[in-house]
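We store chain and fold; thus.
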Amino acid sequence: MDDTDRKILLELQQDAGRSLDEIAKIVGSSKTPVWNRIRKMREAGIIGPQVVVPDAEKLGFEACFFVLIRTSEHEADWQQRFLKALRERPEVQEAHRLAGDIDYILKVRVKNARAYDVFYQALISEVKVHNVTALLSMEEIKSTTALAI
């Protein structure tokens, strides 16, 4: 990747819905070379799928919980069931396996606390967990998918 690729990628991270003409003008190039660079970055796996980022609150998903999970189970079978349960739950926006005292952290977006409880009850009915702590986000201060390239 050179500086032009980085400029293109920065622009795409801000708004991938902009026209090639707009992006080309901003990065100081023309449409065809910009398209070719984007295509090459897609082929190389640098650029993944383009998605729409909906406004969760405007759609009624007002509660964001960060769920800390500790488990005493570390067998492959348990882990497969746990990962399957997470992948099948649309409420789980992110899931990370951690080093340290907490085994997993989930970002769960739901309409309200009652919807979180439904999610929680379903999860613990499928897989055994040692301890679950749910932290309600009171305010989203920053949220981005952009990388500082």
